[in-house]
Amino acid sequence: VVRCDRKVWRIFARHHYLSGVIPSSSRTWLMTINKVPAAFLAEMRQPHPKAKNIRRISRMVVSPDFQGLGLGYVFMSMIASAYKCEKERTTATFAHPSLIHTFNKSSNWAMIKKPGKNSQHSVGSRKDTTMTDMSSNIKRHKSARATASFEWCGSKNASYHKQLIENYSKK
After folding, report:
1. What are 95-110's pLDDT values in tens digits?
2. pTM: predicted TM-score of the whole model, two decimal places
């Protein structure tokens, strides 16, 4: 995993359901496997009236050749655990039901917004949400993109921090 130029997005944009525009304030990351681009991630500071330490993963794409291996989960967790060393919070929002299911099962990510059409409901505890609740919300809002939001609650990882954040900052 390395920092990359925003232009790398061009390789992955056609595989993502949102617009091809990456905000200029984004930090972009590339995961390779045997020197082959496997996944792309863009994250940025989340504007918030009170909290100044929130980073939001705005784009995450795994190349079709590498999908289904759990690379997206690993990639996002690496970045989030590195930022936790700087007391940064990391959030991500998903529409894909299998991603929602995977992150909801994880003890490292807490659901902070249940799936639903433009839902403003925040969940105090991930135990408050069951897959049955999520499935009914997703089915109820088929006409809109049902999304769920998660925040990293796992531990910090100093070795990822050194590899990903510190080393880049020194350049």
Report:
1. 889 899 999 999 999 9
2. 0.80
